[in-house]
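mind reviewing both lines:
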Amino acid sequence: MADNLPSEFDVVVIGTGLPESIIAAACARSGQRVLHVDSRNYYGGNWASFSFSGLLSWIKENQQNTDIKDECEDWRKLILENEEVISLNKKDKTIQHVEAFCFGDQDAAEDVEEAGALARVPAFGTSVAEEPEKECSPLESSVPGAENWESDKATSTDPPNAAEGSVTEVNSENESSHGAASGESTLELGKSEAALSEVSAQEPKKITYSQIVREGRRFNIDLVSKLLYSRGLLIELLIKSNVSRYAEFKNATRILAFREGKVEQVPCSRADVFNSRQLAMVEKRMLMKFLTFCLEYEQHPDEYQDYKNSTFAQFLKTRKLTPSLQHFILHSIAMVSENDCNTLEGLQATRKFLQCLGRYGNTPFLFPLYGQGEIPQCFCRMCAVFGGIYCLRHSVQCLVVDKESGRQLSRAVLITDQSVLKTDSEQQVSILTVPPVDLGQPAVCVIELCSSTMTCMKDTYLVHLTCPSTKTAREDLEPVVQKLFSLNAETEKETEGEELEKPRVLWAVYFNMRDSSGIDRNSYSGLPSNVYVCSGPDSALGNDCAVKQAETVFQEMFPTEEFCPAPPNPEDIIYDEDEIASEETGFNNSPETKPESSVQESSSRGSTGVKEHTEE
């Protein structure tokens, strides 16, 4: 380490995943001296987000699956006779069966270099060269009385259809460029040109592989696919700790369902329910009655007591709901397993969905701009603000102690040329649950991101698929991919000559990731009492598991300290003479160690992101 850095710390955190980053931030905030290290050269671990070229490097590294070799073993000479060594695993076994495929036009991409306007500063992921659109920060402008499922007012922020404007422009151009003397032939020419323009406007633009590589910095591809519940533990923690000022968010705009081979939009709010053309009036009343019951089900135990040992799917059949309503509630609102979820768990999941509606938008979910990898980096920045020291590309060889004293997820990431459900707006963030076809197979969660989330280039979509593993990721997920998308380089044709509506997959990667959410320090033998273990991402849609784990570990370490309290106001900070002297000499001028007051006055991204609002 550098000579001017401390050699002793109160807490050493290994790995920069979400729970580790939250713990590091909480410890630094409580006044502990924190060293946060990671053997990787990026933040986030298995929670990270990559540009396209960064993901290609990650794929290559994990396909090789080689051991990490010690560059230098001089550390062994430092071990004393009264100390013993606990070796750490030097091989990452959390990622397996990585397979990547290119389905787009594979033109000469070997000499193409990644470029783009979104060049980013890797440290903490808060500096960007291009500001996001104003409408992409819905949480900043949240006001009391936001729409929820009980309100009757519906709003829309969809941009106008660009294709219609271009067709109109062509028509007016043709009319003005020809004189009246041209006669009917000129008029017919203008009509034919307009028709050709209209057809070309409807056809999706062809995206080549070299374009994807060239625009690679416009992609922020997550290793783990999550959405944030608007009243979930992570959002509450971001607000409480004021870490929300380092991030921006976008509403998930559509909840989708896959039924009878078709993708349909699921109505969420009261306005959506009564404006829906998919449901008959009788079904609308049934749905509203059942959702009202779910919000206050604990007050009516007699209505579900007899079904406590039944599955939620069986309970729904007793509620006089049509098959389509049962499907919507089970797979798109409660989002639970048809075979493994009991009645009480289903009611709790439905109530959670409903309670999250309306806080920041018309669905319960939020997505962080630039990808899920931003969230661990936000907590790393908070840790650095309070004096934490970061060291990437630095592996920990072993633990030195005084002598006296494995589950899997299947993941796929697709780059597609169209949305899975086309609408007038191209700026949609959608979540879709595809129910299993065969008994014993898991449901697949599909999250589709548009370019306004800053995770993919314009005219493309980023699609994440996740399910518990039964086989390799490709074997688990490829059947669902084939149902929703076209894998052919050329657009498929039906027998009648009409084009299929399926979006085309341009590029895909499949991999298995370990779900270690059920593992804690008690699962290991021989660990010292001051060593704690964090798990990787779990299969749940939200991040509650990571937040609960971080808080539990912190409270075990420091029982009397508050977990991630709000930072002080800048005007309340009192500097002692040593701090003032160090500032005057320029010792603490780096962004990672600048005092809290200066960070609070100016955020490098220029937006506060999440703010709690007062509910009247």
Remarks:
- The CA atoms of residues 407 and 515 lie 5 Å apart.
- The mean pLDDT is 75.
- DSSP finds 16 helices and 18 strands in the chain.
- The longest strand covers residues 505-515.
